[in-house]
Amino acid sequence: MQNLTIDFICSLDGYGAAEGWPGLWGMGGPEYFEWLATAPDKDYPILMGATTYRLMSAFATAGEEGVDVLDGVTKYVFSSTLDEPLTWANSILVRDDAVDVVRRLKEESERPLRTLGSLALCRSLLNAGLVDRYRVVLFPVITGATGQDRIFDGYPDVRLDLVTSRTFDGRLQLLEYVPTVLEGPPGR
């Protein structure tokens, strides 16, 4: 069975985006972009929802730096609102239940899987016990006034055991964990 890694980028206060800010909060740097282009999982199939697909395919069309590495990667897009054909290369529209499809993909895929954004999709996969790794890149900004898409709202309690960390460009922190969904606070 293949592993599934949830991938998020977020501000220090837990937002996935912010009104008026550029992509990556304007803080993507050469080390981070090099890692995106050469990471061992750069070719792993990506799972995403419709909102993330719309955003990222628009970035790809606009030539946003760092997004071009995703063009050749298989992308499973879970949506009931998008129509075929999807315009971003190697994108497959999936209308079936995400948990069932991902469970099957984990069993049948030749490669590990990862997500890109897609808050509701990731939350449902975590609740279903399908997530093996949880990776977050923290950007050193607080976007309390303009932040959008609070990443962890609606999540269950989760213990995270750190397995790796790295700093990019002297400011971005990559943190990778093994998640364990908890029934509630420890000692309860």
Describe this structure in words.
With 188 residues, the chain is an alpha/beta fold. It has one domain: Dihydrofolate Reductase, subunit A. Helices cover 22% and strands 31% of the residues. The chain contains four helices and ten strands, in the order E-E-H-E-H-E-E-H-E-H-E-E-E-E. The protein has helices at 30-38, 50-62, 98-108, 119-127; strands at 4-11, 15-18, 46-49, 75-78, 91-94, 113-115, 133-139, 147-150, 158-168, 172-181. It has an eight-stranded mixed beta sheet with strand order 5-4-3-6-1-7-10-9. It has a two-stranded antiparallel sheet with strand order 2-8. The longest helix has 13 residues, at 50-62. The radius of gyration is 16 Å and the shape is globular. The model has no long low-confidence stretch (mean pLDDT 92).
Task: Provide the residue-averaged pLDDT.
Answer: 92
Shape: globular
- Low-pLDDT ranges: none
Q: What is the element string, with H for helices and E for strands?
A: EEHEHEEHEHEEEE
| CATH-assigned fold name | Dihydrofolate Reductase, subunit A
The CATH class assignment is: Alpha Beta
- Category from helices, strands and their pairing: alpha/beta
What is the tally of helical segments? 4
Largest beta sheet: strand ordering: 5-4-3-6-1-7-10-9
Total number of domains = 1
CATH architecture: 3-Layer(aba) Sandwich
CATH superfamily: Dihydrofolate Reductase, subunit A
Measured between the Cα atoms of the first and last residue, the distance is 33 Å
